[in-house]
Write a structure and sequence with these properties.
GO terms for molecular function: heme binding; iron ion binding; monooxygenase activity; oxidoreductase activity, acting on paired donors, with incorporation or reduction of molecular oxygen. The protein is of the alpha+beta class. The protein has 14 helices and nine strands. The protein binds protoporphyrin IX containing FE.
Amino acid sequence: MTTIVSSAQDLWTSWTLTTQICVGVAVVLFSIVVMKSSRKIKYKLPPGLPQLPVIGNMLDMRGGEMHEKWWQIAQEKKWPIMSFKFSSKLMLIVSTPEVTKEMLITKGNVFNSRDKDTFLNLALRKSPDGKSETGALFTPHGPAWKVTRKIMVAGQNEFKKNVGDQYIVDTILPQLYSEIAGETSIDARIRVAKMTVIRILLVFVFGPGAEQYADQIVPLNDDLFHVVDTNNAIEFFLPLVGRQMSWLYYKIYQRGLVARKYKLYDSILSQRGIKYNQAKQWSLSDMVQLAEKNGEINHYQALQIFEECFFGGQDTAGGAIEGILKMLVENQEVLVKIQKEMDDVVGVGKQFRHTDADRLPYFQAAIKEGLRLHRAIPVLTPHVAHEDTTLGGYDIPKDTIITVNLWGLARDPASFPDPFEVKPERFLGKDTNFSGNDCKYVVFGVGQRICPGQTLALFMVNVLVGSLAQRYHFELGNDWKHKRDAGTFFKELALHLKLTKRHGFQ
Ligand code: HEM
């Protein structure tokens, strides 16, 4: 009996102990759930389409370019800002000028940072030894970002003043003309958008004569864009293996491509030598080396400034130039009007110079229309807020990734009536500038992160489009077909053109 009672007591004691443990665990779990859900309801996030487990909104992207789908959804639902989930990754997309202005100007001090975690951001902002921040493009807000931007921006005005126009007209353009002289149909992407743009960037970065390295830079850049494209896809579509793959790519990128590019930049520098204060031989590398000597930046930062000029400048400016040439060949009346204006103002057979653009209002309007329709970057490089904030009446948690649909803003009928039609006249007599303070016409971004390459980019677009339009009559090349192609920047098949020299040009 005693045994039975004591076993019963044991049983009771052990049962209560088990119950106590279970109840304890349940209370802890319940508190976690309550804490989590209270954390969730704390934020009133922007609206979005229903999300499926694991894949989020990925099915909503079927059947079109991502920025086109986003624009369609924003228009249908009338959402100035919306949530979108790539698998587990939340992204907010802004689609009106008003909210863009709030984000980039009114709250520009808050939304001025970048996501730290993506492959691209890791690979492009860290020194190969992983110890310091290097560039501007993907670098979060901080001293490294500030100093890099400052040097890049200052460099461009110096370039235009000291080397730009003269050397491009005397050396770079004749090189292009002689290369295409014997060709019946030219590949505008290779000849103009890549090779000529990189030659100009090389002259900007390392000075006159450096254009000879274009053959080496272009394939390295192409490899880099390929790595970036693949990795973006992996990160968005396979989030579970994304981080490991990113790490792998990071190693390949850092050990392979970056090492080769940095080695090339060092070798160009050593061949060129340092020529301070020699206006004719001016190059960005002089400013960069001076900053390094003064201790403002380290050597990795110096190399990364060069890298970002080629990475940030090649396919953006090249894509815009190729797009505008395509607009001209498909809208011959615009091309003819540009040519007439140039003949009248610059003179038949007299080389157009970028300073002439001030006297060519129709040409300027056509360039603006071209950049409206053919920007190479359809959405703003993603920003993050570095503290909890609000936007458009919604809560934005710290570090949430947020972008602006620039492609959509450029096709907003409220800002641009008949947005899909090519009408340079819409810009005539209007003071539409590229800083876009009303955030309706945004090509280079707005506010603190605005593209530091804007001056150089507009210089290249004006000089290359203006010189080709003045000199040649364009037709579509025989082997060019409208067809989609993969790629971060160039989504269409490379443009092929048949160029016939106009009367009066050698
Ligand atoms: C037509 C040509 C170009 C277009 C349309 C363009 C557009 C843009 C845009 C939209 C941004 C993002 C702004 C933001 O995040 O708020 C940007 C950033 C940037 N661009 Fe450009 N860009 C062009 C050419 C260039 C060139 C030629 C260079 C270098 C020489 C360059 C270097 C950069 C850099 C370093 C950033 C990052 C700035 C930062 O995060 O602070 N870009 N660009």
